[in-house]
Amino acid sequence: MNKIAKLIDETFLKSGANDEEIKKVCEECKEYGFRALCILPEHTKLSKEMLKGTEIKVTTLIDEPTGASPHEERLKMIQRAKEDGSDEIELVMKVDDFKNKKYEEVLYDLKILCDILPTKVIIGSGYLTDEEIRMASEFTKEAKAICVKTATVDDPLSQSELPEKAKHIRIMKEVAPNLLIKASGSVRTFSDLKMMTDAGADIIGTSSGVNIVDEFKGIKGESLDDGRMVE
Predict the structure, then answer these.
(1) Which of the four, 9, 42, 125, 176, has the lowest number of CB atoms within 10 Å?
(2) pTM value?
């Protein structure tokens, strides 16, 4: 199996998608052997059924794009995802509250919610200053999440700004070295992926996983900085 695929959380976040579209992306996940499939809450149950018997995780995105729902609603979303079979969640930090310095509320919310399922906390790094990225990464660590993630839908950083995202990853890695780091948003090519992993990302979230793997399928000698070879 291509080792690059094991770094990828294939992402399918289309609202209103029909069952056939979900089944298709699940079959692609099985064919390519991605680490996980990240989907919207309404697609969790079918995705879990389709990926049963594989090692591919079902990851449910909670409260995109900026975590604006009340704590009680967020709690219900995660409990429903767990009932539907989600293996882990991607939880958007309450970005607006964080920007307004409501730090106690933000941390309380994360501590409660991260205890339900293995959680990647999306801090929305494109909205934050470098110092805020440090603080949000500390909150993620304190909440006992498994991973801190850059962004989800509506990421303020475009593909042309990926070097800025790489800087964010380095900050996150420095502050929370024991957490997984996930890069997401505008990662569409192998060179994009390599920029993120070279900066310290452990997981890549992308809707272009198939294209990224196909782009370098069969090429030998390419490697990531930590020695992970592309097969």
Answers:
(1) 42
(2) 0.93
